[in-house]
Write a structure and sequence with these properties.
This protein is of the alpha/beta class and about 180 residues long. It has 7 helices and 9 strands; from the N terminus they run βαβββββααβααββαα. Pfam families: DJ-1_PfpI.
């Protein structure tokens, strides 16, 4: 069974987190909701999610992918975690899948794992880095890194993660179930 860790910090974007959790679970992935530093994590719009475990309890060897939702100040909180940056570097070193949406590609750049091309929330690219931004795509995969623009593209992002983790058949199955 494919296993995914989605890391939440206070101020995360709820649509981006819950959509990804839901779609990946529909596809059959084991999704761990990981609190950066608390079991109860408050989103940017005051929705509280209970994490299954804390970041310092995460067993990296049991996960095929790590996903970071955006939102502010959630992204800033993620980017300030040295533990998370080290985990991302190890995932990348082992060529494991890493995904970030909205403002969260900034965390990938801080961890030095972002590849040549990326997308993020339009207008936020200057906070990520000054090259490689591709405004022509909603979701972009470059090697083992997948990035997406933002809330409106959460389902498209999640479906692309299904395709990466499973296959085109599972992607189409879940896409059809969601009436897309």
């Amino acid at each position: 069974m494919k296993s995914v860790a989605i890391v939440l910090a206070d101020g995360f974007e709820e649509i981006e987190a819950v959509s990804v959790i839901d779609v990946l679970r529909r596809a059959g992935a084991n999704v761990s909701i990981v609190g950066l530093d608390s079991a109860y994590v408050r989103g940017a719009h005051d929705i509280v999610i209970k994490a299954n475990l804390l970041l310092d309890e995460l067993d990296e060897n049991k996960h095929d992918m790590i996903v970071l939702p955006g939102g502010l100040p959630g992204t800033t909180n993620l980017a300030s975690s040295e533990i998370l940056l080290e985990i991302l570097a190890r995932f990348d070193k082992h060529n494991k899948q890493i995904a970030a949406i909205c403002a969260a590609p900034m965390v990938l750049e801080r961890a030095k794992v972002l590849k040549n091309h990326f997308v993020c929330y339009p207008g936020f690219e200057a906070n990520v880095r000054n090259f490689g931004y591709d405004d022509s795509k909603n979701v972009l995969t470059d090697q083992n890194i997948t990035t997406a623009k933002g809330p409106a593209f959460s389902i498209e992002f999640a479906l692309n993660l299904v395709k990466i983790l499973f296959n085109d058949s599972k992607y189409n199955e879940i896409k059809n179930e969601l009436l897309i």
